[in-house]
Amino acid sequence: MSAVTSSALRPLLSPALMATLKGLGILAAIALAIVLLVHSGAMPKGSIGHKVLAAPFIDMWDLPDLLVQTLWEGLVAGVLYALIALGFVLIFKASGVFNFAQGIMVVFSALTLVGSYEIMTQRMGLPPGTVVAILALMIAIATMFVLAWLVERIVLRPLVNQNEIIMLMATVGLTYFLIGFGEYIFGGNPKVMITAQLGLPVGQTQFNILGGRVNIQHLDVAAAVIASIMIAGLAFFFQYTRIGRALRAVADSHKAALSVGISLNQIWVIVWFTAGVVALVTGIMWGARSDVSFALEIIALKALPVLILGGFTSVPGAIVGGLIIGIGEKMGEGYWGPLFGGGIETWLAYVIALGFLLFRPQGLFGEKIIERI
Amino acid sequence: MMLHVSPTAATTGIAKGEVLLNVENVSLRFGGVKAISDVSFDIVKGEVRAIIGPNGAGKTSMLNCINGFYFPQEGHITYKGVRRQKVRPHEAASSGIARTFQNVALFKGMTTLDNIMTGRTLKMNVGLFWQLLRHGPAMREEIEHRRKVEDIIDFLEIQAIRKIPVGKLPYGLQKRVELGRALAMEPELLLLDEPMAGMNLEEKEDMCRFILDVNQTFGTTIALIEHDMGVVMDLSDRVVVLEYGRKIADGTPDVVKADQKVIDAYLGVAH
Ligand SMILES: Nc1ncnc2c1ncn2[C@@H]1O[C@H](COP(=O)(O)OP(=O)(O)O)[C@@H](O)[C@H]1O
Ligand SMILES: [Mg+2]
Q1: Do the bridges between strand B97-99 and strand B189-193 make them parallel or antiparallel, or are there none, so unpaired?
Q2: Are A251 and A314 in contact (CB under 8 A)?
Q3: Minimal-distance CA residue of chain B relative to A250
Q4: Which of A123, A286, B62, B209 is the 20 to 30 A CA-CA neighbour of B68?
Q5: Per-residue pLDDT reduced to its tens digit, A243-262
Q6: Considering CB atoms only, which of B89, B114, B134 is closest to A259?
């Protein structure tokens, strides 16, 4: 009888779920402790304990509209972090290469898009508008394909089986090449993303809810929707197509993949191209919120904490990790930032990731690595 | 059990009993280590050819040369009458050479079904466009190949584990799935690296039966590395014996068994 129950329960009480429940339990206990401390008067208003542990939550409670606004902005930033990390994970899984250039690919692809639009409209005299924008988009996609092909030919193929650190250095080299080449062709000035020309929505809507106003940028909604569609599309592609199956196979075992006739070279081109398209989408969304320039590359540095959180080989990890970092960052900046005089957004992601690393060195979804000795 | 996987004999010009693969004076070095020294032997269409020898004799390295994982520094390998200087693994695969590995190399996160489906990679050629739509030609192709894979699953009696990720399977079953993946390639030459290592007696008997079935039903030529002398004597038509990278004997099981060099070098050590 008890054997039946336990085997029936096992799928429900998966280790991940158990860990989540444990985490929630700990959080609830901490919350209760804080409430008790405040109520018993042990933590008076204005004390440092009250400022750090109680006041931010009281603010959240008192101004729910601000909380919703902050969460939404965190979510949108998180989606974009997740996309950068996703491109990174794809390449790392399929070729074992730690692609330092992933962030620069975001800028480079966006720059190619905007730059070729500029050249076509200003120097070649084509009429500005959606048609030319779509043409520029196609040029950008084609450029990412050529880049993937060249990387496979010039970098991966000659260096295959080399030490990981050598591959990393090669991608550092690629980073500087892309910066130099991008500036040479398109100039170094920041450019404006062709958001409206691409048919993306601009403007915003205000919702009067929760006794206040919540501002939603239409572009942010589009970003979240497009990112979700792209992730679902990739998941489908990996799960159900022959090439998707081959990609998963290569990620699992190079020698087995070779033995069934999968060509690593072809897979690497496909993976780098896919990562390039993901970079382009990220670049469009990010560029639309600021300008397109190589200053954007700092967002790429945000991919690192996301990867630490999600594990270097996990696609779901990249997505969940991105959301956690995005939301955590905005919440931290909004509610705890003033305590530090603001500006904590730049380093908070790393602190979150480090704190996490202490408890789960393999990341959220990464496999536990037990070295055989 | 009738398998719909087509016998491969029809697809080549090599008739049963003719030389399918010829290894000529092959030498392979890793830095200072001589893994293989001047080894020659041939494999005849339709036979089961065993390669035996003590650990480190160069048996696995020899299979690696045949399927393009290693390039020998000296010598030649002629396959189906074509002498190959440097063959790459996916070229070997597309010319009909399939293999399994000494320590099982499966796609651990994928199901049994998906693992065996990867064996069909080279036989599927519908473009990415249709694959993404999962319609028309891509759907037809997927169904057609799925049918063949199901036949292999029936043949190997692994229906019960079709949807289980192979990383969760016991070792003996993993070896069987790996054989299934190789069979899905409909190979002309099947290279098996210690297919029965780490198995219990019952699993070994099953595996022997599958190997013989594959050889007899489809006429697939098999090169087999195996330590269990009983198995080698039962299964193989001819045996080549390696020691320290050199060939020390070559012939029928009975001849090899009686060879004094083999008794000294190999049988004397292992038994
Ligand atoms: N990739 C490699 N790098 C260096 N040495 C190797 C490599 N592969 C095999 N060897 C060496 O070649 C020799 C033969 O190995 P192997 O072919 O695995 O033997 P067997 O399969 O007969 O046990 C051994 O000395 C082994 O250490
Ligand atoms: Mg071996």
Answers
A1: parallel
A2: no
A3: B107
A4: B209
A5: 888 988 988 888 899 999 99
A6: B89
Cα separation of A75 and A23, whole Å?
A: 21
What is Dmax (Cα atoms) for chain A? 80
Closest Cα in chain B to A254: B105
Q: Contact at 8 Å (CB) between A294 and A107?
A: yes
Does the domain formed by B12-96+189-271 have CATH 3.40.630.10?
Answer: no
CA A348 vs. chain centroid, Å, equals: 16
pLDDT value at position B156? 92
In the predicted model, what is the mean pLDDT of chain B? 86
Q: What does R_g of chain A's alpha carbons equal in angstroms? A: 23
Which H or E run includes A119?
A: none
Taking residues B246-251, what's their average pLDDT? 92
CB within 8 Å: A252 and B185: no
Query: Which residue type, as a one-letter code, is found at position A168?
Result: L
Beta pairing, strands B48-52 & B33-44 = unpaired
Between the CA of B191 and the centroid of ligand 2 the distance, in Å, is 12
Delimit the domains of chain B by residue range.
12-96+189-271, 109-185
Element (H, E) at B97: strand B97-99
Domains of chain A in sequence order = 15-62 (no CATH), 67-359 (1.10.3470)
Residues A88-147 have pLDDT tens digits of: 888 888 888 888 888 889 999 999 999 999 999 988 888 888 889 999 999 999 999 999
Give exposure, A276-312, as e/b (b: 16+ Cβ within 10 Å).
bbbbbbbbbbbbbbebbbbebbebbebbbbbbbbbbb
Tell me: pLDDT of B82 over 50: yes
Question: Is the confidence at residue A13, as pLDDT, over 90?
Answer: no
Kindly report the pTM of this predicted structure.
0.82
Kindly report the CA angle at A250 between A247 and A251, in degrees rounded to 5? 85
- The helix/strand/coil state of B101 is coil
Among A323, A226, A310, A315, which residue's Cα sits nearest to residue A271?
A315
